[in-house]
Each structure stands twice: as C-alpha cells, then as structure tokens.
Amino acid sequence: MSSVLRATGLSKSFGGLVAVKDVSFEAAPGEIFAIIGPNGAGKTTLLNLISGLLTPTTGRLELLGTDVTAMPTYRRCRLGLGRAFQVVQPFPEMTVAENVLVGAQFGSEGVSSSEARRRADQALERTGLDRLRDQPVEDLNLLQEKRLEIARALATQPKVLLLDEVMAGLRPGEARQAVELVRGVRDEGITVVFIEHVMPVVRDLADRVLVMDHGAELARGTYAEVTSDPRVVEAYLGVEDDDSRAGEESADARSVREAPGDDAGATAGRDA
Ligand SMILES: Nc1ncnc2c1ncn2[C@@H]1O[C@H](COP(=O)(O)OP(=O)(O)OP(=O)(O)O)[C@@H](O)[C@H]1O
Ligand SMILES: [Mg+2]
Asked: C or N: which end of the chain has fewer Cβ atoms within 10 Å?
C-alpha cells in the first residue's frame, strides 16, 4: 500500500504544553481517515501540522512521497493538499462563485483564468452549489457554507482533503447530505483526512480511525475496533454530558442530538 500522507513521530509544543506527542500514521490513496478524541486532544493541532499552518517541533511529514515538513502551506496546496476549516472562513462580500474561484487560482501556479474558472465551475457542480453561484456568501445557510468550504478546497484540485469538524452544527438530514458529499469526493480517488465528534458520521465514513488523547495516539483501527477498545470508551466515548456542560453547548448541537428517531447528530465526549 503506497501512502499519500505519512506522518512520522510528529510532535508540537506550545511553550511547556505538548499539544501533539509523537504521532505517526499513513493514509492510503482514496482512504477516508478519521481523527477523533476528546476536546483539547490535539486533533486540530495535528491537522495544522499536516496543512503547514504550524511547523512541528520534531518529526517528519511526507505528502505523495515528498518531504513537506518545512514546506509552506501554499506549496503543500500546489502539491495536492486541500483544506476546509473548523470555522468557516469565506470572503463574505463576494459571491459563491467568486469565493470558489479564489480557491482555484490559489491552488496552482500559473493556472490560466479560463482554466481556473473551469475548475471553480466543476467544484460548484460537485458540491451542489451551482444554482447559488451568484448569491453573496453572507446569504448562505450553514450546510451551504460547509459545501462552499469544501468547494473552495476542491477547486485547488487536491489529492488529499483535510476536513475539521465539517458536520458540527448540522441537523441529521444535513449531516447525511454532507456524508454523501464526502463519499463522492473519495470516490473520485481523493484521500480524505477528517476530524469529527459526530460518531455516526465517523462510523459511516471512516475506513480507519486514529483516536487521540492528551496529544498522543490512544488507539488506531477500524471504527468497530477503536469503539470497542476499553481505553477509548474510558477516555472519550464514555463521557456523559452533564447539565452544566449541556448548557454550554450551542443550540444547534442540541437540536441535532435531540432530533427524534435519528442518531446522526450523536456526539461523543463533547464538552466544548
Ligand atoms: N496556538 C496555540 N498556543 C498554545 N496552545 C495551543 C495552541 N493551539 C492549541 N493549543 C493547546 O493545545 C491543545 C490541543 O488543542 P487542539 O485545538 O489541537 O485540540 P482539539 O483536539 O482540536 O480540540 P477540539 O475537539 O476542542 O477542537 C489544547 O490544550 C490547546 O489549548
Ligand atoms: Mg479542534
């Protein structure tokens, strides 16, 4: 199995705090690889190390066989790394199509404007945003914003797509649509690495799961393997929301979880 993404002994310290501790993993072509774990486990920090937003304190990262450990984000992007953020970050004053075009232009060196438009149109179509192309971004609902974030990443023509909690705040029906979208992306051969607290989404999407706790790997394997691991149950899955925690949760997250007869919004160990 050749790997598209290979992390070897990645660590990241912020002063005295070790946010990511000696993490190693490989993702294969067309694989959907999930990163889960409690709040503060180091998931976003690990994704930031992969995208190049942060430089590791120690360790090595290879993308498609190239050592990218010290490579800036824009060059990783041109090699084939696309990213959608935990917090959606569009340019609100621009239309949907303009936002995606920015992704297309950013993604490749010397891409002609007609080719950038072609890539943007393709990404709009794949994410179902075609009919909203001339809408200002500020008019989009949450699901449409998430689609936009994925469209912007797809327009860079990635071979690896990084997603940080794209299902957060979605209603169960919307989460199912987002799951279908991610599956479609994978079916085109793109490797997907995603962080997710919504466990049914992890179950439905992930080929393999990395469980992090306190910056380090706690377990790795299929969804069935990691969710039956007593250490994972203790550190993450067994955490019950008490009333004080539920009070801090967003109204969106609550409405998802309380939707009757549908567990697509069930979250694990979420105390943010
Ligand atoms: N830039 C930073 N400077 C200092 N500490 C940081 C920084 N970024 C993250 N941390 C700390 O590193 C740890 C891991 O944070 P990280 O955001 O990676 O967790 P996470 O697993 O993504 O959590 P969540 O599920 O809440 O998104 C936390 O203790 C956090 O406070
Ligand atoms: Mg995070």
From this structure: N
